[in-house]
Fold:
Amino acid sequence: MHNNQPRRYYRIDMTVLTRFIKDIFVANGCSENNADIMANVCIEADLRGHSIQGIDHIYSILRDLDNGVLLGDAAPRIISETGATLLIDGAGCPGYVGGVFATEHLIQKARRMGTASAALQDAGDLFMLGYYAEQFARAGLIGLVFTNTWPPRVHPTGGIDPVLGTNPLAIGIPTGGIPMVFDSATSTSAIGHVRLAGYHDEDIAPGIAIDADGAPTVNPYQALQGALTPMAGHKGFGLGLCIALLSGAMAGGELGSRLDIVARSREGTQGKRCHLFIAIDPAAFGDAAEARSRADVYLAEIKAGRRMPGVDEIMIPGERSAKVRKDNLKQGIPILAEVWNRICRFAADAGVDIPSVKGEQS
Structure:
């Protein structure tokens, strides 16, 4: 499978795209408030060049809304708390809605307590975890976000069956400038890269997936029927397992085959898909400004180091996406033609007006 044809994109104004996506969510049963949150957070991924976590995933949200797995008008609520913890019932809400609710409430609690954590139960996929981690960092806090993803896509070390999610984590750290934001799956590749390769009949990179029989494959369709490999072998398996236990078992959620069953269920089983947020206020350990200054000095030292041949700049996590976001705000958000055409079909099915956009470009 080889396709050397360039991928084609539309460039779409952020305001136009946000309104369009919000209208699609409203037309599919979401409240105005929820649709507004969902559209704004969803588009942030495309703005930053993380298209595999952006509007390409609207298909799965609309599918779950139609099946009753997600409830478009659900409102998260705090069901119990201690001085430094929050337990939040998402009530079947889309993940964007629950993630924003948890982040906003946890910021306030961490500022009071020095550190705090929140478990979000019964909410859909959070998608780009770095968005929430960055909100913590912009509020002057260190933020950690963990999620036990569904469906299972990753095989364990020595195994063949996909029993783990891609189970990402994100860490946001405040600095004197752009926050440092690390966001990574614990699989060798995010499943989105495999999905996009399938759209274009392209091979995937060697070493990131196995087929259903456990043999290495570069065919995206075989990979989707098989499993992704854990990042860095047993290390990625161990890290992904820890994230599953933290954001699943400890946070009150289901794991493994049980999660696969309840995640497809229309029953309002509280806790079926869970996420964990932790926030730390640097001011609890000393002068927050000095902490940021120390971070800035260290990051500057890293960037000033010797570069390998062909490398123009050493990039700090979060720096590239911030630059891409700035450029895309000016030029328009690049959306793959295949993704845009599919979104337009969803809009047409729901009776939503489709905006005219600039022509395709490679």
Remarks:
- The chain has a mean pLDDT of 94.
- The chain has twelve helices and eleven strands.
- The CA atoms of residues 173 and 180 lie 5 Å apart.
